[in-house]
Amino acid sequence: MIDLRAARANPEPVRAALARKGAGDAFDRLLEADERWRALVPRVDELRAKTKLKGKPTPEQLGQLQAVKAALKSAEDELAAAEAERDTLALRVPGAQLACEAPMACGYGACYGCVVPRDGSFVRLCIEGPVLLAGAA
Ligand code: FES
Prior knowledge:
CATH class of the largest domain: Mainly Alpha
Helix content: 55-70%
Strand order of the largest sheet: 1-2-5
Bound molecules: FE2/S2 (inorganic) cluster
Strand content: 5-15%
Number of domains: 2
CATH superfamily of the largest domain: Serine-tRNA synthetase, tRNA binding domain
Oligomer: single chain
Order of helices and strands: EHHHHEEEHE
CATH topology of the largest domain: Helix Hairpins
Radius of gyration: 18 Å
Largest sheet: 3 strands, mixed
Number of helices: 5
CATH architecture of the largest domain: Orthogonal Bundle
């Protein structure tokens, strides 16, 4: 199995091993897609944080909030597309694992707040994840 986090830190041995299986290019494209996804996550988090105001907003803050929400929607769409691309490319790399993210509430499998679609069904990331085999997507 390939741990994408470990592969990010030291990609050459992983790439060499996958190149012997004919998946070196797929691994390179996966790392690029993963980098695009990882670059978008902080931007989305930052915009989400900006939507949380303390107290009753002023009319000026409401105007700014509308702009932030529009930017957040755009960034979330971009993030979802990047994640889908990364997950699709991971399917082409034998043994790749993905670290998935979802908001968690209970953390022990009771609330289903952390479900993600997998293999035509859903899995709870707090129980079955957060690292999933890419081939099981
Ligand atoms: S966080 Fe509640 S089921 Fe996963």
